[in-house]
Amino acid sequence: MNRHRAFPLLPSPEEAEAYAEWRTLQNTLTQLIDLLAEDLTGPPIPGDLCYHPEALAVRKIDKRPLSRCRYDRARDTLLFVLDTSDSCREYSAFLQKVAYAALRLGSVELWEAPNGRIVGYWTWDRHSQAPAFYEQNHQHWPWRGRVLVFLGDYDGADLLIEASRHNQVWWLCNEERHKELAEHPLYEDRSLREFRGKILPVRNEGDLLRSIRKIRPL
Fold first, then answer.
1. Where do the structural domains in the chain lie, given as residue ranges?
2. N or C: which end of the chain has fewer CB atoms below 10 A?
3. pLDDT in tens, 33-42
């Protein structure tokens, strides 16, 4: 199912302050994607980025052209997962701006997950020049061996803990109700020590910019 939602209009260059903030957010997300990009390398594919050691060794025997000893790496897409539940309503404007910027960059997959439950993904509709939503429900996160960035609070922490066992997960956390996961009424017997990714406090654009300085590929 495809449905459109209200996203904030992009500020025009005439709105100097708002436009500068928008450009800063886009640049920040670009930095984040670049920082994590080296963990997005997939299997070898035809290309000329790198020399293949085994092909170079065989070349001494079969005299193949040097051009046939090169290859590229397939690139996986960075996954952005946003918590859009009521508990994150206070941060909805910030999350919307992140979502819009990510869609406009076009180099990430954007998924919606209220309380950590996957309900669908967003794409940029070139025909309407607007975001479009496609429903796709998952009780558990379906990915393996991927790099994910989750923006949300402690609700759904059990799903993040599980996902971190099979993926590299960066949790940009806006939780302010509880200092520890065990203080959450649903997770009194759980601990953030079970989470195998990295967790950083991010509640606004400034926090996101500061978190970039701490993020390195896992």
1. 2-39+76-212, 43-75
2. N
3. 777 765 555 5
